[in-house]
Design a protein that fits this description.
Strand content: 15-25%
Number of strands: 12
Order of helices and strands: EHEHEEEEEHHHEEEHEE
Largest sheet: 6 strands, parallel
Structural class: alpha/beta
Shape: globular
Distance between the termini: 41 Å
Length: about 180
């Protein structure tokens, strides 16, 4: 019945103290609704966070996405170079990326455009062609090296001549100190 989960490391540390291994081993339940990560010092997020999916340990070794995740807050993860693949999470309403100092681009992986399985496994093309379908609030803050935010619609048209909807119900967008 755990719905909210926070991982927070002390601030002012030097080195990662095996942060990557620690977080990789702390797999949340796929019914998680809110995830907060602060002061993580690994150079990359764990696989389950990057793919937003949890291995379902059965005889098929399949993955279950964090489809019930409503809120994701990543704060002061200063060494991470890539953002997680979030674009196809159907319930994600609130997203905060704050203090990801080494992040330089929000692109294909952020939109989860590399995952064509979502299109094939979904009976509704409306859902599969919509990125960030439930996102209402997006905060991008304190990312001094962010140089590019790719246009998902242009990428999709160039790749497959398909139109995608991006952020169809976004109400609040905050961009602060992203040079």
């Amino acid at each position: 019945n755990l719905s909210d989960l926070a991982f927070e490391w002390g601030s002012g540390r030097e080195g990662d103290y095996n942060d990557e291994d620690v977080l990789e081993g702390l797999l949340p339940h796929p019914n998680l609704q809110s995830l907060y990560v602060k002061n993580y010092m690994g150079s990359q997020f764990p696989r389950w966070l990057m793919n937003m999916s949890i291995a379902k340990y059965n005889m098929y070794g399949s993955l279950r996405r964090l489809d019930r995740l409503v809120k994701l807050v990543l704060v002061d993860c200063k060494m991470c170079e890539d953002a997680p693949a979030l674009g196809r999470l159907p319930s994600l309403e609130f997203l905060v990326l704050d203090g990801l100092d080494k992040l330089t681009c929000l692109g294909r992986s952020f939109y989860d455009m590399d995952d064509r399985r979502a299109s094939r496994n979904n009976s509704s093309s409306e859902v599969s062609n919509t990125l960030f379908p439930a996102l209402k609030s997006l905060v991008l803050s304190e990312m001094p090296n962010l140089r590019e935010w790719m246009d998902a619609q242009a990428e999709s048209r160039r790749e497959s001549n398909e139109d995608v909807k991006v952020f169809p119900i976004l109400e609040d967008l905050t961009i602060n100190k992203c040079y």
